[in-house]
Write a structure and sequence with these properties.
The protein has 317 residues and is an alpha/beta fold. It is built from six helices and 15 strands. The protein has a single domain, classed as Ribonuclease Z/Hydroxyacylglutathione hydrolase-like (Metallo-beta-lactamase, Chain A, 4-Layer Sandwich), CATH 3.60.15.10. Strands 8-7-9-10-11-12-13-14 form an eight-stranded mixed β-sheet. Strand 9 and strand 10 form a beta hairpin.
């Protein structure tokens, strides 16, 4: 598998200005692209969805299927959907996964709640193109925000077929390259949030942002992301910020990310969701302190810690 970053900023896009440089770590909000054999997986569509769309067009990804894993509905994770060119190509198909927000369990049962949430952000007068009118074929699935679920996709010609856990008697009945397993990971964040673990051909990645740690590591992450090859965690704030007014905002700090990665037995850690008020100098300072903290822990399994830079890629094997 190969992971690409098209946006690692949190809360709000943060472009460079004359006296505030973000060109190293990037200013676009959350958007990642995961290549796993024949599977194309998008994780969130913040403002980084625009350069992602341009990349996919350049790569000739037209008439393709995409699995879109949406962590939650805050604007920095969905604001780029209407600017992602592949959504305007009718030959494309998007399998969109989200969760049922609190209070939406019985609202308009004829419409999927994921579709409802995405329609609302693109409704008039907030956006000129309604979500439902984006030409690409779109299919929606809502998961439980409190309890983990497991599902699969299998290759079907040039397309994918969704398979809930109950429909898979034995994954070994499928060709190894033609099946992928996805596990939802409930996280601690205002209005709810899902992380995702992806397992493919013996390799694994977990994407668990946005999440605010308590005084101890998240046991759901410890269990569901156990022994993962690569974990992506939210380290938006400094320890001093998290001890102050940013408590309850739903984000972590880099040192707690290290503790979490060690607790679940991850081999590598990427720290994402940089604060829009932190320029490259500040983020580099946080990364340096984080590496020092990691080095002192002398972790036996975790062997790599780094902050995400927009445009970087990582091979997962």
């Amino acid at each position: 598998m190969k992971l690409h970053s098209f946006g690692a900023r949190g809360s709000l896009p943060s472009p460079s200005t004359r006296d505030f440089n973000t060109s190293i770590y990037g200013g676009n909000t959350t958007c990642y692209y995961l290549e796993a054999g024949p599977f194309r997986i998008i994780i969130d569509m913040g403002s980084g969805a625009r350069p992602l769309g341009n990349y996919l067009m350049k790569e000739g990804e037209i008439g393709k299927s995409f699995i879109f894993l949406l962590t939650h509905y805050h604007s920095d994770h969905i604001q780029g959907i209407g600017f992602c060119v592949p959504f305007y190509i009718k030959e494309n198909t998007f399998y969109i996964h989200g969760f049922t927000p609190e209070g939406r369990e019985n609202v308009d049962p004829l419409k999927n709640v994921v579709l409802q949430a995405l329609e609302e952000q693109q409704a008039s007068p907030y956006f000129p193109v309604p979500h439902g009118l984006l030409p690409a074929n779109k299919k929606y699935r809502a998961h439980n925000r409190m309890f983990s679920e497991v599902f699969y996709y299998v290759v079907n010609g040039e397309d994918y077929v969704y398979k809930p856990l109950a429909d898979i008697e034995d994954p070994e009945n499928y060709a190894l390259k033609e099946i992928i397993k996805i596990t939802t990971v409930p996280l601690h964040h205002p209005n709810g949030c899902l992380g995702y673990r992806v397992d493919y051909m013996g390799s694994s990645i977990a994407f668990c942002t946005d999440n605010e740690p308590f005084a101890f590591t998240n046991n759901k992450i410890n269990t569901l992301c156990k022994d993962v090859d690569l974990i992506v965690l939210d380290g938006q704030y400094t320890a001093e910020q998290l001890a102050g007014l940013t408590q309850t905002f739903g984000h972590g700090n880099p040192e707690l990310c290290v503790d979490q990665a060690v607790a679940c037995g991850a081999k590598s850690l990427l720290i994402t969701h940089m604060d829009p008020g932190h320029d490259d100098v500040k983020v580099a300072e946080m990364e340096k302190k984080c590496i020092e903290y990691f080095t002192k822990k002398k972790a036996k399994i975790l062997n790599n810690v780094e902050f995400v830079k927009e445009g970087d890629s990582w091979q997962i094997s």
